[in-house]
Design goal:
The complex is a heterodimer of chains A (757) and B (61).
Chain A: E1 2-11, E2 14-20, E3 24-29, H1 36-48, H2 53-56, E4 65-72, E5 75-82, E6 87-94, E7 99-106, H3 114-127, H4 132-138, E8 140-141, H5 151-162, H6 166-183, H7 198-212, H8 214-222, H9 228-265, H10 296-308, H11 319-349, H12 355-374, H13 379-439, H14 445-472, H15 480-485, H16 490-502, H17 508-541, H18 546-552, H19 554-559, H20 561-572, H21 575-623, E9 631-633, E10 639-643, E11 647-650, H22 656-673, E12 682-685, H23 693-706, E13 711-716, H24 719-728, E14 731-734, H25 751-754
Parallel strand pairs in A: 3-13, 3-14, 8-12, 12-13
Antiparallel strand pairs in A: 1-2, 1-4, 4-5, 5-6, 6-7, 9-10, 10-11
Chain B: H1 8-14, H2 19-31, H3 36-60
Helix pairs in contact in B: 1-2, 2-3
Classes of the chains: A alpha/beta (757), B mainly alpha (61).
Amino acid sequence: MILRSIELESFGRFRGQTVEFRRGLNLVIGPNEAGKSTIAEAVPAVLFGTDRLERFKPWGRNVCSASLFFEGRGHTVEVKRNLLTDDVELVEKDDLYHVRSQFSGKAPFRGRSASCREYRELLEKLIGVADERLFRATYFFGHHPQSWSGDELALKLRTLVSGTAEADYAEILDTLLEEHFQLTRSSPWGRDKQRDREYETVCQQLSEQGDEGAVPVFVEIDNPARDDSQVALDEEISALTGELEFERQEYEKGQRYIERFRQQADINEEKFEPPAKVESVKVEPVKVEPVKEERPGTKKTLAEKLTAAGLPPSLTPQLPEVLSAAAEIRQELAALQQPFSILHGREKKIPQIPWMVIGCLLVLFVTLSAVAFWQPFFKTPLLTVVGVCSVALLAWASWRQINRNKMLEQCRKERGLLEQKKGVAQQRQAELSERCDALGLPSSAVDLVRLQKLVMTHRTLLDQYWSATDSDDPGDGTGAEVVDREPSSRDATESVVEKDLLKDDEAPEELRQLEARLADFAANLQEKETRLQLLQAQLKSSMPSPGAAAEAAPGVASQQGPLVQEISVKSAISPLQKRKNDLEDRIVVLRKSINLLADAVDEFSRSHLVTLNAEAGKMFGKITGGRYTEIKLDENMAPSIQVDGRRWTPVDHFSRGTVDAIYLALRMALAKVRDDGRSLPLMFDDPFVHLDQKRLAKTLNLVDLASADGQLILFSHNLDLGKRAARERWHVVPLDGDAVNTTPDEGGEHAGQLHLL
Amino acid sequence: MTRLLGSAHIETLAREESVRGVLVRTVIKQSEFADEQELQLLEDALQLLLKRFQAMDGEAS
């Protein structure tokens, strides 16, 4: 997509002027204060809005507006913005000037309203970029070029590089995960969910049925070895045993933690006693060590790790709730997309009435009537036939039109309902965004997904910290993890853990809460113990000796023969068991799908990153005359340069000129790699100020080459560039400091060069 | 039984330079060393994902 023109109705020092550009290399040249940067800045200001209105608002005038006119393959896009009111009009037209899509409404710089989101979605669809920071990091190069650092930006850049709507794949992943967790609480990718789902319920019911002994007896006759329900029982018992063992240890830790907590807070309350029912848990009495000096080194290490992972030292307790609400809204919006697309398909399928054909036919009929009227033979029959045909045609067309109107009306109603639902979801999202703002959290969907992953990292780091401190120091208070692992209070407790970690002003309330949670945990432990005993008894009863089995079902085993045995076994597979098997199959397929898709998206992004690295390395090699030829972007898109063919050095360690060169190379490489027809022109505002003569010459050659397949707009005050522009036949837009002279059509194709002569 | 893997459609998809192409290639690679049970699982997973992709493409168009 190329930028055809910028219309500066009232923008900075410009008033009612139009700057036109062409495909290839464009040079906007002029002295300081001529308005080069103003023109360059008009593009992001119009597309995304600005928070520096004072810079662009003309002095003494109460209007500030500009328009951009883009031209792509088979369509044009016009964006007009009033920067004072942030009213935007966006119109996309096809080759025949039919409107394809449009937007009209408010879209402020940092707006989060529904209309703002709608505008950004349209922008994303049309030009692939809906974020000012991303635009500046990819298509724009100013005096202080936007570096590629920052997690949020890195994620967007990765999406842009791979050219895929990563968010769409994230949505598919989300729906698969949602489906998985509707079936089971167990998660192979992290912690299990708290509440039991259908699979667990079915298992529970099955085990209760198994207690009656009906199913296992028949199965035992058929297969004396083991049947599915016994295998399941066995598996459940072993899982429960492992879980219990772990939780017993955690309980001990909890006790130690609370003891230490109490000592630290110097609370002379009654010593915490575990509830009586915990006795069956068989927890050995733990000797409480005197509280040791806390090891600042360990804490420091943890704090460092948290910072390195991009996490704040303390997470707000509301975070899990916010994240889950965000995921819910995201899924809701994703679920709404399908009905919209179906509706759109239906609307498209509604047949058009061929009024043109009907009109032509009517004209033909009229002509025939006239001919019939003037000729002597068959006058009446001919006129009758023509009249009947005309009436029939009109009746048919009217009937079709009525039907069409009905169908359209129905679609409109359904769309209205869907829009209403979408509006409600968006309203909730806006409220959530406000809540996020209030909590100091990012509010975009991508950020929240990322945050969810970071929270998992946070938990892992805390777990590592506590397990490390526990192994070194039994009295170091790692027992908070007990509470932390206790399902009902896991998330809220983490903040308590952090509080303990990072500050020592524990309140008695917190101690009481921890004690209550530990008591709950103990009760839960007790329940599990009971359940384990129950399962063991059940397994024992379901595995009688061969003699006992025959005794238990003498009629089946000895009298009715193997056929009846088989029928009995089949009837013994209850609907519940069948449901359980189906659920297991579905869960396994879902897990496999999720893993396959996640790996595929990852590999796809990586492969594009490799291409970008190679392309940028080649360009950087040309700029530096072969001194550096390898660039590597890490996961956070931070570039490193290979020095002497061996070690990789982060780009920050190099001079400003080299840093400028690498970011120029990256921008040009990205424009080359990302060729999906939505790329914007590269805009370089005096990018060569830090380059020496040698690198400047090479960079100019590269820029000239890079512009061949697209569009590059170079803003400069350098008169040498002007001379080169005349030689190379670049399109030149001269600015003289008083007025802009930008009408290339007036003097023919080379009018832009004339002033240089 | 007709297999999804090995069909002409899957071979066409495997040549795509897209996430879907990478996915199909991964499944084909994994299927080379899979036993019957695992093969069935891979096919089921692939089928599920292709359906979702189709739905996504429908939305995009």
